[in-house]
Sequence to fold (241 residues):
Amino acid sequence: MSRNYELFYWPMIPGRGEYVRLALEHAGAAYVDVARKPPEEGGGIKNLVAFLGAAEAPLPFAPPVLVDGEVRLGQTAAILDYLGPRLGLTPDSATGRSTALMHQLTVSDLVSEAHDTHHPVGTGLYYEDQKAEALLRARSFRDTRLPKFAAYFERVLEGTGDWLDAGFMSYADLSLFQTLEGIAYAFPNTWARVSSDTPALRAHRNRVAALPSLAPYFASDRRLPFNEHGLFRHYPELDPA
Ligand SMILES: N[C@@H](CCC(=O)N[C@@H](CS)C(=O)NCC(=O)O)C(=O)O
Fold:
């Protein structure tokens, strides 16, 4: 826990970097958020892009990237699977570790589907240039996909109790929380409907929100508020009453 992890992520964007930060912050791990440092100290977007482009194996595809000494990892789920045992955020057993990863990957699928509501055609295009498709995609997310994911996690929690894996809070619990926060921000009307049918999920979100380990982080400027540059964006037309 005393090592200095390095996290590389877009400095002002509330995106997948948040998932890694939550795990590090919960554990009280020492880490440097490299891109948030001043450019002359190696921070900023230019340095981040140069870091990502450096041909060093293993070469991660996209941020977030975690560096721990010789270890250099991309892919949020792989990073969390690596950090889990080191931060006490996965059970010791192989089954427990795989279960956490399974839940994380399902959360990642939900995150991608939420993202695709505002960028259904191309991530490199403006939202305004794919608005017609976004309206269609968001309808399917609201009516079918989000209720299906929510009902699934509700069923899991009905079976396990407080956490996704019975009796053990893992990084996947933190990730589910972050995702529900994002969805409640982006789709407040839809979330009000969906969450009224999923009391265990509502309670889970409140349980993570109240963790004393995260209180200093939530009160700090390290915690980025959601905005229309991140994964979860609030466009009222995508979330009718
Ligand atoms: N599956 C990857 C996705 C990584 C990803 O899409 N990162 C975004 C920021 S949240 C990015 O910068 N992508 C650049 C790109 O895909 O070109 C993960 O879970 O980490």
Observations:
- The chain has a mean pLDDT of 96.
- The radius of gyration is 18 Å.
- Residues 153 and 201 are 7 Å apart (CA to CA).
